[in-house]
Every structure is written in structure tokens, then in C-alpha cells.
Design brief:
By secondary structure, the protein is mainly α. The chain has helices spanning 8-11, 14-31, 44-58, 67-74, 81-97, 102-113, 116-119. Helix 2 (14-31) packs across helix 3, helix 2 (14-31) crosses helix 5 and helix 5 (81-97) runs antiparallel to helix 6.
């Protein structure tokens, strides 16, 4: 019997579950008056793939993203604090809709908020 904690990623069903969450999240993002415009010229399948890996990594899955990569991919977007907050709010709503445990949602949101300085550039 092992004492290792099962990751949040595994508890919620791995990549197939995370990709459903991310797709639902982007439905909200694209409808958002605050941040929808950021995604007008974005190749969504590639973005969804990257975001799925990122959220998986935040949930303890096998993917990993350094803060340097986060900074590099967001730097040219001119994201401000209001846009970042909108993204966090929509992500929280999406996680709630997928019935994640409130403690787990808080953990994911806190992890992403802790990286805000690498994402906000305006």
C-alpha cells in the first residue's frame, strides 16, 4: 500500500477531463466583453492544447510550464490586471460547473494568481 497522495489531475480523470474543462472555459472567454478580443486572431486548437497542459500541470499532472515560458507567451499581449482577473473569474466559474471540490478550485486559482506577474504586462 502506497502513501503517495493521488494528484488532483488524476482524481478528476486526467487529460480527457482537463481538456473538457479547458474547452468550456474558452467558450466563456470568447463570449467575454473583457477578454474575448485577445483571442480574435488566435489559433484556438493549439491554444486549447497548451492551456490543457498548463492546467494539467497546475493540478499536479505530468506537464510543466516554467514562469519564463508563461512570460514569453504572454508578453506581446499587453494583458492588464482587469483582463487577468476576468480570466481567473471565468476559470473559477468553469471549475465550479465541473463540480471540482472548492478547496481544489482555490488551489488552482491561487497557483495561477501567484503567476500573475508573468502574465500581466500592461
Amino acid at each position: 500500500r502506497t502513501n503517495m497522495a493521488v494528484s488532483m489531475f488524476d482524481r478528476y480523470g486526467g487529460f480527457s477531463s482537463v481538456s473538457k474543462i479547458v474547452m468550456a472555459f474558452y467558450d466563456k472567454v470568447l463570449d467575454s466583453d473583457v477578454i474575448g478580443d485577445y483571442f480574435e486572431d488566435v489559433e484556438l486548437p493549439a491554444l486549447i492544447d497548451h492551456q490543457t497542459k498548463f492546467i494539467a500541470s497546475v493540478m499536479g499532472g505530468p506537464a510543466s510550464y516554467t514562469n519564463e515560458v508563461l512570460q514569453r507567451v504572454h508578453a506581446h499581449l499587453g494583458i492588464d490586471a482587469a483582463a487577468f482577473q476576468e480570466m481567473v473569474t471565468l476559470l473559477r466559474e468553469t471549475l465550479e460547473e465541473f463540480d471540482l471540490d472548492p478547496h481544489d478550485i482555490d488551489q488552482v486559482v491561487q497557483d495561477i494568481k501567484s503567476r500573475s506577474s508573468y502574465i500581466i504586462s500592461a
